[in-house]
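Researcher: Here's a chain I'd like modeled. Treat it as a single chain, no partners, no ligands.
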Amino acid sequence: MSSKSVLVTGGLGFIGSHTVVALQKEGYKVVIIDNLSNSSIDVLGGITQITGKTPEFENLDLRDKEAVKNFFEKYPDIEDVIHFAASKAVGESVINPLLYYENNIATLVYLLQELNKKPNARFIFSSSCTVYGQADELPITENAPVKKAESPYGNTKQIGEEILQDTCKTNLHFKAIALRYFNPIGAHPTAEIGELPIGTPQNLIPFITQTAIGKREELSVFGDDYPTEDGTAIRDYIHVMDLAEAHVKALKRLIDAKEKSNYEVFNLGTGKGNSVLEVIKSFEKVSGEKLPYKVVGRREGDIISAYADTTKANEDLGWKADRSLDDALKSAWKWQKVVRKREEEEN
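Model: Modeled as a single isolated chain. Structure tokens:
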């Protein structure tokens, strides 16, 4: 492992912060870039609390090309980048597509232009299983066709992967891995960091925990007429700590140059699908809370079922998701109670 620093963009966000913890636990030095548009500076304290080390932090907007250039002049030894900084709300991307193209595409280009100047740069891209749409076969392997995106957000992930591939084709010394996440949930077991959605949550788990704690009246279950066992949609829910550890494995793979090609793609999931009703039951079990919910109509753009074939990540990265759905929901509930306590103290 090199003593050089790893840049983590969006490192104070949900997945970014857990990955910073995993990197620091493995002895990596970390520099975080975050513009705090969808995160809080308090997360830095949480990372320090868990690891005993404070990563370097730069409050910087990656849409500012000059600022990106200046950053790499200030940190000339940085060759390894894990890129999380992106907007990620599907609904918002439909309403404001240009914001998503600027924030998710322009920033990627500016980072790659700087890294391209280096003799041996390595890059990990946070992609998404949204690139598969409703896959023709389950579980989904990395060879499944990429379908036309249902939203500008999904499209930015597809375009991002294409930009990376093209960069790798023209610069054989540049190495990249795209990690296609399924559904990250949960929080660090210490409850020092977790998912902090601003406004109304877009994802199921924060909505469940906010409903259970009384912040929301009831949970809406979007559709119970899907062709699944209980009629609700199925997703592959992966504990955020398992996901974070996969980034450390991917970085080691790039540094050790084990990959056959200089561009690789991996699915990150548990390999198992759970329906919305199964998630609700699991949450009620681990929390002891009864969850008020009602079934409403399907949500536009939602697919029936998606879960990963994780064989490639298991074999090539030497990684697998170890934590259970119950573990993830227990940690998410513990985190929600900490958030509530903090809110009460502030008020």
